[in-house]
Design goal:
By secondary structure, this protein is of the alpha+beta class. It is about 50% helix and about 15% strand. The protein is built from 23 helices and 22 strands. About 30% of the residues are buried.
Length: about 675
């Protein structure tokens, strides 16, 4: 059932016009009616005469398709995206703030817009960015604000293979953002849309303040906020990198692991309830209340809601006394969540959570039974290792596809990370409980901070080990699917010893090899010229056979910007070696620029137009810096197959230069059209 629903959801997301709304609704009604008729006939005949399964699955498939269409807010005629010439708008803040170095980031739901001199009711969400110097304290959930100006539609990625923030937001039904650089933001009042969410967010910050009162270290605060509450704003790049290299990032994302630990503590502490009459039901209701209470403490974040819903279906089935199927319990929770929000299927956390749990449920018993330890300590080590291997095996294809790296020492790290995470979570609960008792609360905080410091120390030690992480791994979507299929086929081969599984594995390996070879011919074996859009900088890559020569301002551009804007494309083009040099051996400087002869192409980078520059003809002309202001003269002197305007100047300077042209030439502005990329 859930697979049929997911198939319909994916078709609607990737091919939204494949089925019209009328045909979809008619199909749901007809398929449902036929399934009901089949059930009634079978009941009347008291035997299975007609099979209702195919019709029911078709109805669910179409239901998934229709649910995506219905859940896409931009299809509504009163959505913000259909409004033009907005002068101002009112909105209500609906999320906790995030903080960067100089601005707050917060989500707001628009209620009314001022357009054409009239206030109109609309719906839609906007991501707001506003200055911390103008607003030292961010807005709270439920604050009603008035904003001057018009929100902007979120643009797509400016550089090839960069993170698509627009699509990420669209899956949350968010299409607009607004950078507010002047005091055009006014607080009007307070009107929270949801009392439950208001309580959850207030509880979250109350617990955070209570924990921070006892924890003093910055790194320790960042870890306890991420591990307990899911607040990751305080984590720096080094801390994230260390946990990622150790294969322990799952500890910092509040999800199934944390909810599982909470449930384990509950079943241990509340186990005496089983002896009472109706004790199983009391245990179930108490467990559900505490699990959902913990969800409130984390601010009802999506990852925790997924995990708590998953566990709720498992917990709810236990008092019934039936022999429940864990796979059906997981499928039921996924079915319920996808009915509420079909776009969850595109969330990486949703995919990893369910696949990790399924892998642990399936692979763990098979791995654990391979070895029978004699001592309890060895049994603990082997059991924890089997869980880690099972989770890593199941999530391997997705981790390689999304994160392009593999933590080599994940087994070693998880042997101490999971028990220490258990201790940190238990300690945080004790800190909250003992917060009102002066001495006990103080020493609980001291012990908790020491425990977190010890955890961080071990994580950094694992990161320092040689070959701690294998990075630079690139997989296409087809290769990701093939690897997952190979893992399943190898498991079935070892479990059932059937020769045709070996044939399947061989066929999959051939498909993987062919796709890899095709990717090699498309990327590694070709020469590439890429002019990136990096605000205020000129970053040009000439790439061939795994080597990228980077010309321009890359050495003066922040590493975080390069990693976000440039590195994904280098990874996709199988770059193994990066040489940052403004004077490569295949180039020569001339007054005001650089001339390169690269793989049978002539590339000129012109930064200043000198009076002594003679007429020239090149394949690609990259105009940069002061030369942009004399663009018409540049075009007259230099003949090029295509002229590229880089991002070293501002958008306004580039736009003005384009408008000054009277000649008809082929021009690509990276500010207007995104990065320029060509291969031959």
């Amino acid at each position: 059932m859930v697979l049929a629903l997911i198939a319909g959801i994916l078709l609607a997301i990737h091919r939204p016009g494949f089925i019209s709304d009328t045909i979809c609704m008619a199909g749901i009604l007809l398929a449902s009616a036929f399934a009901i008729v089949c059930v009634l006939v079978n009941a009347f005949k008291r035997r299975s005469v007609l099979n209702a399964g195919p019709a029911a699955l078709m109805a669910l498939f179409l239901l998934g398709f229709a649910n995506v269409r219905y859940s896409t807010e931009r299809r509504s005629p009163d959505h913000l995206i259909h409004c033009d010439s907005i002068d101002a708008y009112t909105a209500v803040v609906v999320a906790s703030p995030g903080q960067s170095k100089s601005s707050w980031k917060q989500l707001a739901e628009v209620r009314r817009v001022l357009a054409g001199g009239a206030w109109l009711p609309v719906r839609g969400k906007v991501v707001l960015y506003y200055d911390t110097t103008l607003f030292p304290t961010p807005f709270s959930y439920g604050d009603v604000i008035a904003v001057k100006g018009s929100p902007q539609v979120v643009p797509g990625p400016a550089n090839p293979h960069a993170f698509d923030y627009r699509k990420f937001l669209q899956y949350k039904n968010i299409y607009h953002q607004h950078f507010i650089r002047s005091p055009d933001l006014t607080l009007l009042g307070y009107d929270p849309p949801s009392g439950v969410m208001e309580f959850a967010i207030k509880t979250r910050f109350w617990v955070r303040d209570l924990l921070f009162a006892r924890i003093r270290g910055e790194e320790e605060r960042a870890i306890i906020a991420a591990l307990i509450l899911g607040i990751t704003d305080g984590m720096d790049a080094d801390l994230r990198g260390a946990y990622g290299a150790a294969g322990a990032m799952h500890v910092l994302a509040v999800s199934g692991l944390h909810v599982g630990i909470i449930y384990l503590i509950l079943t241990t502490v509340l186990s005496p309830l089983r002896r009472l009459r109706g004790g199983k039901w009391i245990l179930m209701l108490t467990s559900l209340a505490i699990l959902w209470g913990y969800a409130c403490v984390t601010g009802l974040s999506p990852s925790v809601l997924r995990a708590v819903t998953m566990f709720s279906f498992v917990v709810a089935g236990q008092p019934l006394g039936y022999r429940t199927n864990i796979y059906n319990s997981l499928a039921a929770s996924a079915f319920f969540l996808l009915l509420l929000d079909p776009f969850l299927i595109m969330a990486v956390g949703f995919q990893l959570s369910y696949i990790a749990v399924l892998a642990i449920v399936y692979f763990h018993p098979l791995l654990y039974d391979l070895f029978e330890p004699d001592s309890r300590f060895v049994d603990y080590i082997w059991n924890a290792s089997a869980v880690s291997i099972a989770a890593q095996l199941g999530t391997l294809p997705l981790c390689l596809f999304y994160f392009h790296q593999f933590p080599t020492y994940f087994l070693i790290a998880n042997l101490f990370v999971i028990p220490l995470a258990f201790c940190v979570l238990t300690g945080a609960i004790l800190m909250v409980v003992l917060s009102g008792i002066p001495y006990l609360g103080y020493w609980a905080g001291v012990a908790e901070e020491a425990l977190i410091r010890f955890l961080n120390y071990l994580i950094f030690q694992v990161e320092k080990l040689p070959f701690a992480v294998v990075d630079g791994i690139t997989l296409s979507f087809l290769q990701c699917v093939v690897i997952a299929a190979i893992i399943v086929a190898v498991t079935l081969l070892l479990q059932y010893r059937r020769f045709y599984f070996a044939l399947v594995i061989s066929s999959l390996l051939v498909v993987f090899g062919v796709d890899k070879w095709t990717a090699y011919l498309r990327t590694y074996a070709r020469a590439h010229l890429v002019v990136y859009q990096v605000s205020g900088s000129q970053v040009v890559d000439v790439i061939h056979r795994g080597t990228a020569w980077c010309v321009g301002d890359a050495s003066r551009t922040p590493a975080a910007t390069i990693n976000y804007q440039v590195s994904p494309n280098r990874l996709a083009l199988s770059v193994l070696k990066i040489i940052t040099d403004d004077n490569p051996p295949f180039a020569r400087h001339f007054p005001g620029g650089l001339l390169m002869r690269w793989e049978d192409r002539t590339i000129m980078i012109l930064r200043e137009l000198s009076d002594g520059l003679n007429h020239a003809s090149v394949d690609y002309l990259i105009v940069s810096g002061p030369a942009m202001r004399r663009l018409p003269e540049v075009i007259e002197k230099i003949t090029a197959d295509i002229t590229i305007l880089d991002s070293s100047n501002s958008y306004f300077v580039t736009d003005k230069a384009l408008k000054s042209l009277t000649q008809t030439v082929q021009i690509h502005s990276v500010w207007h059209g995104g990065a320029f990329e060509v291969n031959w």
